[in-house]
TrEMBL record:
SUPFAM superfamilies: Cytochrome P450. It comes from the Eukaryota. This is Cytochrome P450. GO terms for molecular function: heme binding; iron ion binding; monooxygenase activity; oxidoreductase activity, acting on paired donors, with incorporation or reduction of molecular oxygen. Pfam families: p450. Its cofactor is heme. The keyword rRNA-binding does not apply. Keywords: Heme, Iron, Metal-binding, Monooxygenase, Oxidoreductase. It comes from Byssothecium circinans.
């Protein structure tokens, strides 16, 4: 629920448009840039490697050079890749010279298809030379109160949880319980999320708008590349227009006044900087990328990892059972009541499992532009280049995660006395520092709510094949979480032990609480450590 997916998209644009970059030198006052990784094919070798291996190319280079930071030279320019959590902490403090706002300002107009007037507002003071003012430099601080633990976030969470509970009721009562897991989660979580953000006037309730958004998402790379877009990105641009117009009507009709504190804050912020309503509608297309594109894949992998490991499923069910209140009504029906606050506060196996799922499937990069020549770890980072911190590079480092970082260990993040955990900055699923995802609390609650509803109510098994594994070939440059298997079908049935003559009812709620589920170093107060 931030602009981080936009930043991930930008990484791809830097790579594919590298041929447009100007030449630069490799030294400045005798100080060298980070060690460069050579390619077998001169000039275009790295570009070919990136096109073939996509986001995983940096892992290949990491294993080859084994350095805390290295350079990927492309036609005279450098992409700096940080692999060390210690350096990540340093980079996050260097916001004046290593900034993400210019990167967002470059990508956002192309993604949203906004006007020149809106683009001008985005570009204003992106380098921060005029202090902390300007649309982008104040965007996150404006959004933060509505996404931080507290009443505004609780209000969104309650709507979202009730929508997921209704979806589960419908699934339980359906005569046919064979479903495409990807399609089901994508639709149901789209509705749960957008109702919680946009309120009763939610534009996504229109099937045409929902379908257009996912068409836009699938065609995003071609929109970004902007190579003969009227031909190569025609479908994506048409879909973007459909979604943008729907949100333009939403704001013109003042439907946002019945929406969440988040959408009200976004609208107010844009109007304060003179952005027309038509462009605010266009911006919401990008806003939906932030709120939707990563949550349903995460929920998909959370469920498939849990259900494909019987031991994990049983441990998670034991935790859910311990915090479930069961009462019997006069008519003999049984009410199962679950407070999602207790899941976050009292179910460490479930929350640790979510972190391990994200370690395996989160592949996004945080991207920063080098605004001035900057010294880092004894190396010079040259102005005009780009710095990346790819999550998958750090998440698969054997020096951080043990000799087999590809192994799935649902207790890896479990905090127990005497157990040493990796540095909190080594977990990069939500970025960090100035690029830390402000919507991580909402996103994790939504994934946990989805998982809890299934764990408590349903048994699930594949229809044909074995449980799917993450597919590396599906990862595009802008991907933050690996794509689900779109064809995977499951059989869903009431959990064993719930069948019988008694009628079972379910209540999922959220009590008032400022419990913080630590999903980033900043949540633990360890961002600079």
């Amino acid at each position: 629920m931030s602009l981080l997916p936009v930043i991930g998209v930008v990484a791809g644009s830097f790579l594919f448009l590298a041929a447009l970059l100007k030449l630069s030198t490799r030294k400045s006052n005798g100080v060298e840039e980070p060690p460069a990784v050579s390619s077998k094919v001169p000039f275009i070798g790295h570009i070919l490697g990136m096109m073939h291996h996509k986001v995983f190319y940096y892992q290949i280079l990491r294993d080859r050079i084994k350095a805390p930071i290295f350079s990927v030279p492309i036609l005279g320019k450098s992409i700096y890749v940080v692999t060390s959590p210690q350096l990540v902490s340093t980079v996050q403090r260097m916001t004046k010279t290593l900034a993400f706002e210019p990167v967002v300002a470059m990508a956002s107009p192309r993604i949203a298809g906004c006007s020149a007037e809106a683009e001008k507002a985005l570009q204003y003071n992106v380098d921060g030379k005029q202090g902390e003012k300007g649309y982008l430099r104040t965007f996150f601080t404006t959004m933060h109160p509505s996404l931080a633990p507290g009443p505004a976030l609780d209000a969104m969470n309650r709507i979202m949880i009730q929508q997921i509970a209704k979806s589960a009721d419908a699934l339980a009562s359906a005569s046919m319980k064979r479903v495409n897991l990807c399609d089901w989660l994508r639709h149901e979580l789209t509705m749960a999320t957008t109702y919680s953000v946009y309120g009763p006037g939610n534009p996504m309730v229109d099937e045409k708008v929902e379908r257009a958004f996912w068409d836009f998402e699938r065609n995003l790379m071609m929109i970004l590349l902007n190579i003969f877009p009227s031909f190569t990105a025609r479908k994506g641009i048409a879909a973007r227009r459909t979604v943008g117009k729907a949100f333009e009507r939403y704001f013109e009709n003042e439907e946002h006044t019945s929406g969440s504190a988040l959408v009200k804050a976004r609208y107010k912020h844009s109007r304060e900087y003179g952005i027309p309503v038509s462009d605010i509608g266009a911006f919401e297309t990008g806003g939906c990328l932030a709120t939707l594109a990563n949550t349903f894949p995460t929920a998909y992998w959370m469920l498939t990892y849990i259900y494909s490991h019987p031991k994990v499923l049983q441990e998670c069910r034991d935790e859910v059972q311990r915090i479930t209140t069961v009462t019997t009504a006069e008519d003999g029906s049984v009410l199962h009541s679950i407070d999602m606050t207790s899941i976050k506060a009292s179910c460490p196996v479930i929350t640790a499992t979510l972190q391990e799922v994200l370690r395996h499937t989160a592949v996004g990069s945080t991207v920063r532009g080098v605004l001035e020549d900057t010294t880092l770890d004894g190396y010079i980072l040259k102005k005009g280049n780009t710095l990346l911190t790819p999550a998958n590079v750090i998440h698969t480092d054997p020096t951080l995660w043990g000799t087999d970082p590809t192994a799935f260990d649902h207790q890896r993040f479990l905090r127990v006395p005497g157990k040493k955990l990796p540095s909190a900055t080594a977990f990069r699923a939500f970025g960090g520092g100035a690029t830390l995802c402000p919507g991580r609390h909402f996103a994790t609650t939504e994934v946990l709510a989805t998982a809890t509803v299934f764990i408590a109510r349903f048994d699930m098994k594949p229809v044909f094949d074995n449980w799917p594994q993450p597919d590396r070939s599906s990862a595009q440059f802008w991907t933050q979480v690996l794509e689900p298997n779109r064809e995977f079908e499951v059989k869903v049935s009431e959990k064993e032990g719930l069948l019988g003559q008694q009628k079972h009812k379910w209540e999922f709620k959220l009590s008032e609480s400022e419990v913080v589920l630590a999903m980033a170093a900043e949540d633990l107060g360890e961002a600079g450590k």
